[in-house]
Amino acid sequence: MKNFISLLAACLMVFVACEPISSDDPTASSITITSKTDVSINSGSTMGMITYTINNPTTGYEVKATPNVEWINSFDYSQMGKITYKVDANPTFDPRSGVVTVSYGTDKIAVNFTQKGKDRPKEISVEVPYLLGHYFGDYANNGNYNYYLAFSESDYDAQGSFYAAGYKYFLDIYSTERPEDYNHIRVPNGVYTFNPNNDGMAGTFLESYSIYKEYDNSYIELGQKPYSEGVLTVEDDMIKLEVMFIDEPDIYVVTFNGDYSMMDKRSESGGIY
User: Fold this and answer.
1) Which contiguous run of DSSP H or E holds residue 97?
2) Could you give the angle at the alpha carbon of 25 between the alpha carbons of 22 and 30, nearest 5°?
3) Domain boundary among 99, 115, 131
4) d(CA 187, CA 165)
5) Are residues 224 and 127 in the same domain?
6) N or C: which end of the chain has fewer CB within 10 A?
7) Whole-angstrom Cα distance, residue 57 to residue 21?
8) What is the pLDDT of residues 148-191, one digit of tens each?
9) Containing structural domain, residue 169
10) Domain check: are 222 and 257 in the same one?
């Protein structure tokens, strides 16, 4: 009889040891990342996967991935032990980094991401002698102020316009800021990006009137090239345009260093001042 009871007890111990554990003690639970915690990615859009194991599962706990950047997204937890995700293409030439925090209860592990910038094209540097411009006030009647700028090979023509001989990089800029001095109008400091939507959004220059043109000595236009993308950086007397043209592989880095002043054309704009 004693032998039977001992055998029964031993069997029960084996049975209990083989049962999967689901603890109600959250302090005993943890997560282990079994894939890389430092992830390097090329510049293009891609899918990826984080793999993990749960140590001492706790009832009611779930695995969650929380990114600190928007370009890592679309997390899927449908497969046990796996989290799939999507990385958006990097639209810039510079690398970028982000962190995804994987958590289970109070246990957290950081997965670090580094994404390469897209291949930088050949740079062509252009330093212009003139920076011209017209200020039109709230031309679009949307609370943003319109600065029409031209990186130019030549000065204004006799009528104060932009048609004197040479090349011009035109930019139709919108800002939330008015000029500080209407007798010395300048584009407010900041970064302005190419805007193909033509909606007058602040911090952009619009596709519709932003273009490269060349003129001869008779003020006749010799040709033009539309932009495909670009960034304007204004820092006081240092103004830089990085721009690419449709169907051209190179990037043009156009700079002007020095003082300049734009003409006040509010009376001609029909907009709110």
Assistant:
1) strand 96-104
2) 75
3) 115
4) 24
5) yes
6) N
7) 7
8) 999 999 999 888 899 899 999 999 999 999 999 999 999 999 99
9) 123-269
10) yes
